[in-house]
Every structure is written in structure tokens, then in C-alpha cells.
Amino acid sequence: MNGRKSSGKAEWLTTMPSLAWLALFFAVPSVIVLAFTFHGHTANGGVGEWSLSTWRELVDPDYPTIVWKTVRISFEVTFWSIILALPCAYAIARMPKRWRSVVAGAIMLPFWTSFVVRVFAWKTLLHPDGWLQACYLTWLKVCDWSFGWLPGFLQRFLVWTGFATAGHVDPSLATILDSETAVVLVSVYTFLPFAIMPIYTAAEKFDFSLLEAARDLGATNFYSFRKIFLPGVRQGVVSAVLMVFIPVIGSYVIPQMLGGTECILIGNKIFMRAMQNRNIPHASALATLMAVTVLVPMGAAMWWKRRQEARDRRKLDVRTNRLMTSGGAS
Amino acid sequence: MKDDFLVFDHVTKRFGALTAVDDVCLTVKRGEFFSLLGPSGCGKTTLLRMLGGFERPDSGRIYLEGRDITDLPPNQRRVHTVFQNYALFPTMTIWDNIAFSLKLAKKEKGEIEEKVNAILGMIQMSEHAWKYPNQLSGGQKQRVAIARALVDRPQVLLLDEPLAALDLKLRQHMLIELDAIHDQVGITFIYVTHDQGEAMSLSDRIAVVNKGRIEQLDVPAKIYEAPSSRFVASFIGDTNFFSGEIVSVEGDYCTIQPEGFPAISAYNDKNLKAGQRVDLSVRPEKIRVTLNPPLPEKGAGINVFPAKVKDIVYQGVYTKYWLQSGGMRVSALKPHSRFLLDQEAITWNDDAFVWWHPDDGYMVEAK
């Protein structure tokens, strides 16, 4: 306790720079953005008088649809990124040490090329005469076929939430370029390294002899991956989810370049309001709306999880107490 | 041979240029406490890993109760391992750790509970059932690791240097517990260690492994008293080697002429002939150290040599002496069965005598 007290001041001093940085470049701008939403706008693109007119304008029937679509696509991208990142991270962590840094470096290599240039290159790859178009049509057929097998209520739920489209897709009209699939695909491509890295960092610290122990006790490879490895790298997976989900929520370049008319996300709307309509308060309000949409469920989930953990701990303590008062095992 | 409980049949394993296990044949009896003893890198762990299913031999077969298990993956053999670092699952409670194999075997809930609680009682860890591994001490983790491997009653339990991570006091305590657990469950234990003390005190039989080969396989007392090679004699306990040529044979005894040392009389159990070279091993505790030569009635034909006391390490129970005799540095161990302070003290640079009966030396290797 004593040592902690004396180091308190030093600790405070060392955290000061990052604290100041956060205050200056995160807290203050956030407050400014929030303040803008309570202003009107001027015809020339300036920020007008204090008013609630901006929030009133936000009652647009398009916005809930677009917000939901953004959240849905972010979920899809996060899901596929994690699914792909897990085996990657596992494989890299099991490589000989010399190879690990090489492969990890190779994963970061695309960042040496401009993001916009890479997305532009995808336009060529996704051309209607390309092989990815053929893959896309097959994928649509597989989706369509498996959709038919699902129970009715699930079909209706998927259509209602937008994860599936009602009715059959006309292959002659379906192109992968300018589709939602293109946006998800290229987003996964872009953000996969952000998913691999935190999971890999966690996997590198993971004790792989635990998997051997699980195998030894009768577990299959897949079972030990699921029951031992996954819980072991849980922290990494959680960071990976955040590292992918948050940037995708605000992305607008990929839907702009590859989504065509099929895929307008909230990021595009914010971009349009800010840069084309010159309505900064409106753009600020949309950004705030988006942040609230994400932060509220996330905060609720964290609160619920913490409560659950505390409850589990209490349960184990109670069991231990019961065991001890009953005088050990039967 | 296949009818024995556990059989290694001409097993060889190579890692690149290194032959870790070299044509090993080995049989283990049911219910035995069997030790693989050897220096690090001798191949004992590789033998264990092949038995666990984590390595596949390059040649040779392994049979368990007559069944060829060489190519079975680890999860399909009823052989469980206690790992050196325990490898307890950190995200599970002690209870869930122990129940792991039973749940995998899809046992009924009531049966799982009964078995886990029973074994928790046996290792006296019932009150820790709902803790996580990081809340336990080293010795407790060790006991949980053993319980986890034993709970579904495997055919064989493999222990890979299970006490190496514990401190001395705990290690001695765990030795007794391991022995008790083995007596209680009656499962075959295969114990890998580089610590001869652990192996000697626990095992029914010991296989001394060196450079991928089994140097000697026998009961502990035979390994200690009658080592089959110079390596075994020096690896198991301390010893004095006298290397020399047999100059004459007299009935059951022979006379050895070592380099830089007077002629020694030794029991010739191997029926060696004059002219053969031999290593004579004499354990320190067989050598007596006195300030005066032994009285003639102590027996004729005894080996007596004058020596100068060079080093003394007093241990309470015994004193260890290093003496210079001829060109040899002889170590001797004197147990104190009488009140030490009443005796005439032997100190540094005293002129003393070392002596032992010809029966107490053992000729390990004839070349």
C-alpha cells in the first residue's frame, strides 16, 4: 500500500502526456461535435445560431434503414474477419519463431500501399468479366439454395433484418461490383490484419501444451481448439472485434467506390452532409447518432458481462463454503 | 512378448540427424511403478511422448495390452500424462479441470460428480474444487494434475518430471503422496525423471536411459549395487572408479592393478581372466576411514590403503571425506551411528587409512 501511495504522483505525471493528448484530440473535439448538433446551419456552410432544428431534420425515414444497414454490415465484416483471423493467428503463433515475424510482417505489408489505391484495384478484380463475378453467382446460388432449407420464421427474420433478400436474384442482373457483397468482401480484406494482430498477440502468449493436455485427456483437435484455445485468447478476440467493428462502422471509402447504389452507409451520409451539402451541424448530428447507436449496446453488454462474472464468482464461493461446512466430499 | 502389459518393440525415433530413441525394447508389467531415468536429452521424454501419442516412432511398434497403439492419436489411447508444467486449463475451475476427460467420454452427470468428488477427496483438495488454477500453490496444482489424469482410470499414467518445478521440501512430501496414490489406484505409472533419488524411492523397476538406449533395466537396489556400466554407476549416486588390469585370479577373487594405485582385491563375479581390463566401482559408503589400520581380526584379504585427508563435509547424519591415496582422490562416507563427539576427530591433512572388503567393490565393465 505504502509503495503504491508514493508512486501515485509519479504515475500521475507519466500518464499526463497521454491524458492531455486524449483531452485535446478526443474529448474536446467530441464536445465540439456534440455542440454543433445544437446549432442550425447557414446557407454558406457555416454554423448558425443555437437551435434544435438540426435534430428535428434528423427525423428522416431513410436514416433508421441506413443506420441498421451500417450496423448489420459491420457485424458481417467483423464476423468474417474473426472467422478468418482465428486460424491465421493460431497458425502464425505455432510457427518457428524466425518465421513468425516474417509472416506477421507480410500481413502488414499491404499498408505500404495507399488504401484508396488498393480499393481501386479491387474495382478491376470485381469486374463483371472477372472470375470473382463467377464465384459471386455461385455463392448467390448456394445462399439461395440453403435459404430454402431454413424454417419459415428464420427466413422471415433474415429478410426482415436484411441479412437475406426476399425472392430469387436474377443472375443476369447481379453483379458483384456495386453490390453489398463487394463492400463486405473488401472491408474484410482491409480490416483482416486488424483482427489477426490482436488475436496473434494473445495466441503467442497462449500455452500450447494445454492443447496437448486436452488431446491427452481425449479431446479431438477441434474440441480442444474450441474449449481451450478460444477461451485462452478471448481477450485478443475481444480487441479484434473492436478493432474491426469500430472502423467499419464509420467507413465510407469502400461503400463509395464499390457499393454503387446498393450500399450507402452512414459514413457516406456524413461525408455528403459535411462535404457536399456543407451542413456541418447535420453531419455532426449523424455522427453523434452513430456513436450512440454503437456505444449504448456496447456499454450495456459490458455491464451485463461484469455482473455475470461477479455472479459466477459468488456462486463458486458459495459452493466452496457449502463444501467446507459439509465436511468435504462425499 | 506382445502378451505383456506394455511393450516397446524395437522403437526408434530420429529428429533430423539426432537419434533420440535408438532401437529400444522394453516391457512394463501391469500395475508397476516404472521409472525412466537419465540425463536431460537422453531420450526418456521422447519415449514418454511416443507412449502418449505425441510422437510417432520412425520404426518399431508399441503394444498396450496386446493392442498395437503405435499409430493411434493421443485422444484415442487410454494413456494420460501429468505434464511437467501441470498444463491445468486456466479458464476452468479445479472441478471442471478434473471433470474434463469424463465429460468428453459423455459419462452421466451423476457419475461424473461422484467420481470427481471422490478423487478430490483422495487428493484432499475438496475445499479448493471451485477455485481456478492460478489460485493454487505448486503442490496443489501438482495434485490436481494427477487427479485430472487419473479420474477416468487410464490404463497407464505417464508422469513427465512431475516434481521438477517444486521446492525440495514439497518434493519430498509429494514423493510420499505419489507413492500412496499409486498404491491406492493400482494403475501402471511410468515416471520420467533425471533425479535418481526420486526414481530410487518410488520405483518398482528403473530403466536407466542414455543416448537413446536403455543401459540397464532392473530393481533399484540392483541398479545401485550392481550397475551394468560405468555410466550407470556414475549416474546413480557417487562412486570411486579404479580402472586397471586383472593381474591374477585367486578362486572367487581377483587382483586388479590400477594405474597410480596399489593392487586391489575384488570379488570376481564375472569370472574374468588375468590380463582383462576392468572398471572397479567402490561406493563411498562402502569405504571406511580410520586413523589406524583395521585390526587383523576384521578379516584377512581386506583392501587397506594409507591416505591423506583433503576435504571434509560434515552433514550431521554422515561426514563425507575426500582423501588422497596414491594417485587417486578417493571419496568416502562415514555414517555417524555413535555419539560423534566421543570419538577421535579426523581432520584435514591427517594421515588416515581407507579400507573396504573385496566383496564391497563391483566390477562394472570388462573391456
Can you walk through the features of this model?
The complex is a heterodimer of chains A (330) and B (367). Among the domains of chain A are: 66 residues, no CATH class; 147 residues, Orthogonal Bundle (MetI-like fold). Chain A is mainly alpha-helical and 330 residues long. The longest helix of chain A is centred in the last third of the chain and has 46 residues. Chain A has 14 helices and 2 strands. Chain A starts with a helix and ends in a 5-residue tail after the last helix. Chain A has a two-stranded antiparallel ribbon with strand order 1-2. In chain A, a hairpin with a 5-residue loop joins strand 1 and strand 2. By secondary structure, chain B is α+β, with helices and mostly antiparallel strands. Chain B folds into 2 domains: 229 residues, P-loop containing nucleotide triphosphate hydrolases (Rossmann fold); 129 residues, Beta Barrel (OB fold (Dihydrolipoamide Acetyltransferase, E2P)), CATH 2.40.50.100. Helices cover 23% and strands 35% of the residues of chain B. Chain B is built from 8 helices and 20 strands. Chain B has a 6-stranded mixed sheet, with helices on both faces. In chain B, strand 11 and strand 12 form a beta hairpin. The radius of gyration of chain B is 25 Å and the shape is elongated. In chain B, 39% of the residues are buried. The interface between A and B is medium-sized, with 26 and 35 residues.
